[in-house]
Amino acid sequence: ESSFVATMLLGGAEENIKHLYSRAVVLICPPLELLATLIAYSVLNIGLMGIAIPMGSFIPNMVIGALTGRLLGHVLLTWRHTAHLALASPGIYSLMGSAALLG
After folding, report:
1. 74: closest CA among 2, 14, 1, 4?
2. What's the CA gap between 76 and 96, in Å, rounded?
3. What is the phi/psi pair of residue 95, to 5°?
4. How many whole angstroms separate alpha carbon 36 and alpha carbon 3?
5. What's the average model confidence in pLDDT over 8-21?
6. Which end of the chain has a smaller Cβ tally under 10 Å, C or N?
């Protein structure tokens, strides 16, 4: 069994975004592992922006927004069960998080 954090940090960014946007995968990524991935990816992104290698910041910012949105979606998903609300899946919040961070 593979770790979600290792999959997100060692995989391609485009595949990670597709995985985070997925509405079919609800609880494959636990919230604590999402938080650890978000912290690690943010620290790595900040560090890589300071080196003298040309690279874009578009895709890394999309991944950070998707991780943040997915984490919020999981928090709302667990809260929904106690409040009996109908909310969107975490994948939708992931898409909104990416758009908010880019916008």
Report:
1. 4
2. 14
3. -65, -40
4. 12
5. 86
6. N
Q: What is the pLDDT of residues 38-85, one digit of tens each?
A: 999 899 888 888 787 777 788 889 999 999 999 998 888 888 777 777
Q: Tokens at residue 98, please?
A: 């990416």
Task: Provide DSSP, 1-63.
Answer: ---HHHHHHHS-HHHHHHHHH-SS-SSSS-HHHHHHHHHHHHHHHHHHHTSSS---SHHHHHH
Residue type, 80: R
Q: Which of 51, 8, 54 has the alpha carbon at shortest distance from 28?
A: 8
List Cβ neighbours of 61 (8 Å cut-off, separation of 6 or more). Answer: 45, 98, 101, 102
